[in-house]
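seq as requested:
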Amino acid sequence: MSIDVRIVSLGALSSHPLRGEAGDRRPGHATTSLLTLGEQRILVDPSLPPDHLRQRLDERMGLEPSAITDVFLTDLRPDRRRGLGLFTDARWHVGEAERDAYREVIQTRRRELDDEDELDPESDRLLEIESQVVARCGAAPDRLADGVDLFPLPGVTPGLCGLLLPMPRTTILICGDAIPTVEHLEQGVVLPHVADLEQAQESFKEAVEIADQLVLGRDNLVFNPTRRFGLG
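struct tokens:
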């Protein structure tokens, strides 16, 4: 079955270190993409706020949120999923290692709150919301759909995962923040603040080695500059 890959919304870093930017220059958000395989529609990283994402789906594809069958999160940081609540009828997926790591962060923070002298109802409420999101996300299988394979890219976060799409004439990797922008791709560097620098660098290398084209975490669908040819 053929796979249609479309960019719903281009992401952006709040501050781009490789352009010499410091401080928050703009709202940061992830690139959102859509994979269509027959009647199955997989939305990756619904990062925009709900109203904006609903509008982009209509503008780019003429779709309502109810048309999305699956949502895949490359990682569980909140800026990946601002629009997640639009897709209550869809299946939500995230890498198992990412889900486990994020759950542990929530549990640690709960223990810290329990040890504090004064109760913080707002923090407790936010942690409960995060717990519900994690509980709602299923551990993504190794093959999310026919021709859509899970591709672990840990480092930026403990369990960041991309999606690998091997096609007859090209291989596309949706890589999340493992490679965030064209500048990072061209200069061979990862984001400055990561969970594990060595892992992040290794994941960057693996992404470049396997893919002809990459959907970058905060940028467009681009050709791999290390390849001598694209589609053949």
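Residues 4-11+27-223 form a domain with the Metallo-beta-lactamase; Chain A fold (CATH 3.60.15.10).
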